[in-house]
Amino acid sequence: MPTRHSESHRSSRVGWLRAAVLGANDGIVSVSGLVVGVAASGASHETVLASGVAALAAGAMSMAAGEYVSVQSQADTELADLATERRELAAQPQFELNELTHIYVRRGLEPELARQVAEQLTAHDALAAHARDELGITDTLRARPVQAAFASATAFVSGGVLPMASVLLSPASIVQPVTIAVTISALFVSGALAARAGGAPMLRGAARVAFWGALAMAVSSGVGSLFDVSV
Question: What is the pTM assigned to this prediction?
Answer without folding.
Answer: 0.65
